[in-house]
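S.,

As promised, the flavin mononucleotide run. Input:
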Amino acid sequence: MSKKVLIISYSQSGQLQSVMEQIAEPLAECNGLQCDFLEIRPEVPYPYPWSFYEFFNVFPEAVYLDGCPVKPVECDDNYDLIILGYTSWFLSPSIPVTGFLQTEQAKTLFKNTPVVTVIACRDMWLIAQEKMKTLLSGLDARLLDNVVFTDQGKSLYTFVTTPRWMLTGKKDGFWFFPPAGVDKKEIDSAGRFGERICNALQHDEECATLPLLKNMGAVNVNGKLIATEHIAHRSFLIWCRLIKKAGPQGSWGRNVVITIYTAFLLTLVVTVVPLNMLFRKLLAPFRRKALARAVHYYEQPSGK
Ligand SMILES: Cc1cc2nc3c(=O)[nH]c(=O)nc-3n(C[C@H](O)[C@H](O)[C@H](O)COP(=O)(O)O)c2cc1C
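Predicted complex:
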């Protein structure tokens, strides 16, 4: 076999980078495979940890897939397979990854190429992956598989631990909260996907349409979050339009609307969200089939 794989991602704290490294390890040792491991680098780096206003200032650009200028990637023009790692920012692919997918270089790289997406995020990635599918099909790429890693602990806990991590850089557990981020054991087990991809490439399986990573625990969809993501995204579209209209990034006008938005968001979280949870619990017995269908849809192509 003489094949080439591009493994490329954008990670701030290095968490997604570690996932990609685990996947890359067996591929680097795979017989007859050239494995190029690269990073997406924005021309102007994003902060990490973020200040409160820096964090919310990128909200509209992330949601509306504006992208940002990125440095050219030094790699070949075409690959047999691309493994693209991205994080979710406000239910959208992170801005640097969107920016990279909008470059002329990406048009050449992704055309007619099978792609495995790898996501490491808090736990809300469904809409981001829908947007990723649109970006990839715009590049005539072929989504072959999707692998997802989510932060440890229940949603209620990660609603605190993930933002705390993003805004302070602190990942440790405190009080009754678990540590932030993906469980290290899960990251360490990501090599199994690299092993499977190596084997598949040796048998030309990437040329067929069937996913390579099924029945490996690549994706677990939390059904409870499907409606939440849809409702949140609808409100994001409205608020992001308002925030954009208020002024450019960092402007006084934008920061005022962001302040109003976050106050609104907190009010929602303590009022509407619990009511919504109760309402959905009551409706659950009548919605089982519809929910199972939705879970099945989002699990594709690599679920179970
Ligand atoms: C601006 C911003 C917005 C985020 N929005 C989401 C989100 O909508 N859903 C989610 O699951 N995680 C979200 N996260 C968490 C990231 O997906 C990811 O877990 C975190 O940035 C760590 O990744 P990294 O250090 O490897 O880049 C967000 C992070 C940032 C910085």
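The CA atoms of residues 239 and 261 lie 7 Å apart. The beta strands are 3-9, 33-39, 81-86, 88-89, 92-93, 114-121, 142-150.

- D.
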